Automatic annotation (TrEMBL):
It comes from the Bacteria. This is Fructose-1,6-bisphosphate aldolase. It comes from Fannyhessea vaginae PB189-T1-4. Keywords: Lyase. It is an enzyme of class 4 (lyase). Its EC number is 4.1.2.13. Transmembrane segments: none annotated. InterPro entries: Aldolase_TIM (IPR013785), Class_II_FBP_aldolase (IPR050246), FBA_II (IPR000771). GO terms for molecular function: fructose-bisphosphate aldolase activity.
Length: 290
């Protein structure tokens, strides 16, 4: 099966009342685990590569690895560049075949955010690539992007329509009180703000900072208009904790990496399976397959 664009996957979400899960990966094991979960749940899925993951794995290697996974998959897969801040890297990803990218110019002033996002959107449009952008600032830490918890800026509904119209993006990440990474205190989500934004635009809305929210909070966000949910930190935690456990459990004479990594993959798969059920995307793969 081919790689799907973000626009294609999100086209079915609002009318069918679910969100597509988007999961960060950092190597083959967690990428395969995410897809295994999607296959077991018969769900569409988004594999998200951060700039750090690309630097770690290599742009060409990462792209062709996911392409190979997608070609033998029975469910729709989108490869998405997450939180791109380097315009040159984003364009290289588009050139090589990424079907979806995020340009995160949210740290810039509103007018500059529009200008930078528009540049990427125009370039991506020429390559049949979807574009996600961010309006407002989601707090917490996302690799090299750090926003102090008290410095996050919630998305202003008044800015949404002109931003979308001037940038022609395919999805908008909104700041409604979530943070990247695990929460240090209970989140205070602004559901009224989300409902207002969803009520004035048909542009698919994205929730960042998904790790640590309760199932009910996810479901309420989706019922109010969220169509893509990002999860990263929770997978890293599950991956690393299981690897530590296996290192302590297995004999010091064991040297086969697969003995360590199979339980790790299983742990990541279980996390993703649960999230896909919460997001309501389980059983929705057939919506995309002719």
């Amino acid at each position: 099966m081919r790689l799907f664009t973000l626009k294609e996957l999100l086209a079915q979400t609002r009318s069918n009342g679910f969100a597509v899960g988007a999961f960060n990966f950092n190597n083959y094991e967690d990428a395969q685990a995410i897809v295994n979960a999607a296959i077991s749940q018969n769900a569409p899925v988004i594999l998200m590569a951060s700039s750090g993951a690309i630097k770690y794995m290599g742009l060409h290697q990462l792209y062709h690895m996911v392409l190979g996974i997608a070609e033998v998959s029975t469910v729709p897969i989108c490869l998405h560049l997450d939180h791109g801040t380097d315009v040159d890297l984003i364009k290289k990803a588009i050139d090589i075949g990424f079907p979806s990218v995020m340009i995160d110019a949210s740290r810039h002033a509103y007018a500059d955010n529009i200008a930078i996002t528009s540049e990427i959107s125009h370039y991506a449009d020429e390559h049949n690539c979807s574009v996600e952008a961010e309006l407002g600032k989601v707090g917490g830490k996302e690799e090299d992007i750090v926003v102090a918890d008290n410095a996050d800026v919630l998305t202003d509904p008044e800015d949404v329509i002109p931003f979308i119209q001037q940038t022609n993006i395919d999805a908008l990440a909104v700041a409604i009180g979530t943070v990247h990474g695990f929460y240090k205190k209970d989140p205070n989500l602004d559901f009224a703000r989300l409902e207002k934004i969803a009520g004035i635009t048909d542009c698919p809305l994205v929730l960042h900072g998904g790790s640590g929210l309760t199932d009910d909070e996810f479901k309420k966000c989706i019922s109010l208009g969220i169509q893509k949910v990002n999860v990263g930190t929770e997978l890293k935690s599950g991956f690393s904790n299981t690897l530590r456990q296996m290192s302590e459990k297995l004999s010091s004479d064991e040297f086969d990496p697969r003995c360590f990594m199979k339980p790790v993959k299983d742990a990541v798969t279980a996390i993703v399976e649960h999230k896909l059920q919460v997001f309501g995307s389980d059983g929705k793969a057939q919506l995309y397959i002719e």
